[in-house]
Amino acid sequence: MLKRWRKIKLTEFEFSQLIINSEVVLQRSNTVVFTPNNTGPNWLGIKNATINMFPNEYLLLPQSYSSSLLSKEQTIKFLSLLKEKGAQFIIFSGLPDYTLEWIQEVHKLDIKIGVIFHGGQSEFTNNSSKQKQMSQILSLVKKGVIVRVGVVKKGLKESLEHLTKIKIHKLTPVSIKSKDIEIKKFSDKKIHIGVFGNASFNKNRHTQVLAASLIENSQIHVISPNEFSYAVDNSRIITHNNLNKENFLKLLGSMDINLYVSYSESWGQVITESISMGVPCLASNNSGVFDSNETLKSALLVSDYDNPYEIAKKIKSVLRMNLKEEYEAFIESLNNEAKSLVQEFKNSRP
Q: What's the pTM?
């Protein structure tokens, strides 16, 4: 625990590299999209979603968990350099703890500001700091400091527009499968099932692992730690840790089926990444991910998502299906819509 909260400073070399990376972005665009770098699984989903949505404009911000690694002086110098190099629009994709401080500094430089909230309402539960942050962000929108707001969670656009009378943009993450990624399936004749949510309560890992264990001859893959030995023999659990993007996609693609049946989800990037790799992924009906495809909605959504026996029945049903052509059509349609929404967000007038 002490290690997590120990203040880490950005070295001068690392700061120089951040400057170089920002100059590369500004050679392509006058828009810069900030997204926080991950610490293990923390912020990994938002980071990957941002990279896919803004491949030419994203810039990774060095941080530890939700704390910036830049000193106050480095932050001011960095933002001033962005202004000098021609930055006209800065988008904060993901809202770590230091976001409001940075927004104030960007505003002083007369650079347009946008924000994208990737979360959902459930993360405000018993979280006064998040509640305060969102209240202040909406206040800054009303004052014209923030000129564009994007959300990912289904229904949040309409709800916030009704409550605040502010224009809100709905965004959908893009799912990209690299043509260079080689997928190798396991040859041990076992049924490999991925449960790749993190260890937070809302990811519902224990219910899903128990469901996977009900499948005969199954091998269950999880992100570390293994918390399941109270119910499932350790020989049936394989843990994975510190995977980069390419290796994570390889792992997703090597499964026979993936599970992402969470209690609450803003979108569920793992779901569409799995589908893009040609692997089915069960999901809860809480993010709208399959709303545009009735076939996949019927096949892959789990209504009784707190019931391991019902999830196991769904796994068995899906493993008997061949929906690969449906997956390809779904991802193509989804990505076309997602890219259109990103362009609308970037180019719309305040």
A: 0.90
